[in-house]
Design brief:
Elements (H helix, E strand, L loop, with lengths): L1 H11 L5 E8 L10 H6 L10 H10 L5 E5 L7 H13 L3 E6 L6 H5 L16 H19 L5 E4 L6 H10 L3 E2 L4 H5 L13 E3 L4 E2 L4 E6 L4 E6 L28 E7 L5 E2 L5 E2 L4 H13 L4 E2 L2 H9 L8 E2 L39 H4 L13 H24 L1
Parallel strand pairs: 1-2, 1-10, 1-13, 2-3, 3-4, 4-5, 5-7, 6-14
Antiparallel strand pairs: 6-7, 8-9, 11-12
């Protein structure tokens, strides 16, 4: 019996496995008709409420702290409301880090800071100064509300490049949450290392990749990537930790995983892309999912990740050159310049010999003026002699009758 118990204990023993529950907290204008912060962050709708407060409550049930990446660019005209959300999340004991959608900032924001409004997207930034402005300014606004240094950053729609990494280093933000093969496939990023394990960039920034898996398309004979998201992706199957095949909660048997949610993940979306509250089905399903995951994973914050990494519990998977993520601007081909032809001075050139003009009227020959060829005179006189002799014979015969 003791041997059976020991075997079961070893087989069911929970090994060191870590999960990060990340929530992109944003209020983009095209996802609500009005009152964007209240509707898309707090989830307050006419029929009910399902937003970040419900996520906090469910996380607290299972002692699981979320990492809320809060964006202040998308609803820049409602900055005061967003700052109130930041204070609430921080005071609730959850992790609040930086999220940026600078493409949503008004043109006046850039003009007052001496920048052109374009390029708008972070993955298209060609200078570090532009990325440094966004990271520094909004990290500063975030720290003012939490009283803590910003430890992590995720770019809006995973749009980033090497300028972002250098801007993070410049601002003293140690962790990037941007690596995504899905983003590269969608043209939102210029580079991604194909891994789900944290690694280091050559400038010292630590990268925590979005957990994704390759999905092979049998028809097109190629592959694409699916993210580990809530609502649950069909390409990541969940099993109870005590499953009959002794497999882990995540079918890919991941020892480190990053979940992606949004502040509006508990809401439904209509045909126009506007979010609304339908029922509490997604709230309850999330509660069930966390109940399963927390039995098999330790849910950690950004600060806890850095501590575990420093202790060697989460070793980094190598060093990647920052230059791999440089935006390569296509060279503009120079226009072909035709060689200039020398202008000829007509006054100095020798005069061309005058061509003789032909009088066309004189050259025309009238058909009536064309002389017919003369017949041979000898042949004509012979014919006349024959005719006269013939007539004289005929006359002679008539007279004899």
């Amino acid at each position: 019996m003791a041997e059976v118990f020991l075997f079961q204990h070893l087989m069911f023993k929970k090994r060191d496995r870590y999960l990060m529950l990340t929530v992109d907290t944003e209020a983009l204008s095209h996802r609500a008709t009005d009152d964007h912060v209240r509707r898309l962050m707090l989830g307050e709708q006419e029929a009910g409420t399902a937003g970040v407060r419900e996520m906090v409550a469910i996380g607290d049930e299972f002692n699981a702290k979320h990492i809320f990446f809060v964006d202040m660019c998308g609803a820049y005209d409602r900055l005061t409301e967003i700052q109130g959300v930041i204070r609430y999340l921080d005071q609730a004991g959850h992790d609040v880090q930086l999220h940026t959608h600078p493409e949503k900032l008004p043109a006046s924001y850039w003009e007052t800071r001496g920048f052109a409004p374009r390029p708008r997207l972070m993955n298209e930034y060609t200078t570090d100064a532009r990325a440094q402005l966004i990271i520094r300014e909004f990290a500063g606004l975030l720290s003012e509300q939490t009283g803590k240094p910003v430890l992590g950053h995720r770019a809006g729609s995973f749009r980033w490049n090497a300028s972002t990494l250098r801007a993070l280093f410049d601002a003293g933000i140690p962790v990037s949450f941007n690596n995504s093969s899905v983003a590269v496939k969608a043209g939102q990023a210029v580079y991604a290392k194909r891994t789900n394990w944290p690694f280091e960039w050559s400038n010292g920034i630590i990268e925590v990749p979005m957990t994704e898996r390759a999905v092979f398309n049998r028809v097109r004979k190629d592959h694409w990537h699916a993210r580990l998201t809530y609502p649950e992706s069909h390409y990541f199957h969940f099993r109870p930790w005590w499953g009959p095949l002794l497999l882990n909660t995540l079918s890919d048997d991941l020892d480190f995983a990053v979940f992606l949610l949004h502040s509006w993940s508990f809401l439904d979306r209509d045909e126009n892309g506007i979010f609304y509250y339908k029922d509490d089905r997604k709230v309850e399903n999330y509660r069930k999912m966390l109940r399963r995951l927390t039995k098999d994973y330790d849910v950690i914050t950004t600060a806890e990740f850095l501590e575990l990494q420093a202790l060697g519990k989460i070793p980094l998977g190598g060093v990647e050159d920052v230059r791999s993520a440089e935006l390569i601007v296509p060279a503009i081909k120079p226009k072909k310049i035709k060689p200039k032809t020398k202008k000829i001075d007509k006054t100095k050139t020798e005069p061309k010999p005058a061509s003789k003009k032909v009088d066309t009227k004189k050259a025309e020959v009238k058909a009536s003026e064309v002389k017919k060829p003369e017949t041979d005179k000898k042949e004509v006189t012979k014919v006349e002699d024959k005719e006269t002799s013939k007539k004289s014979i005929e006359n002679a015969s008539e007279s004899s009758h």
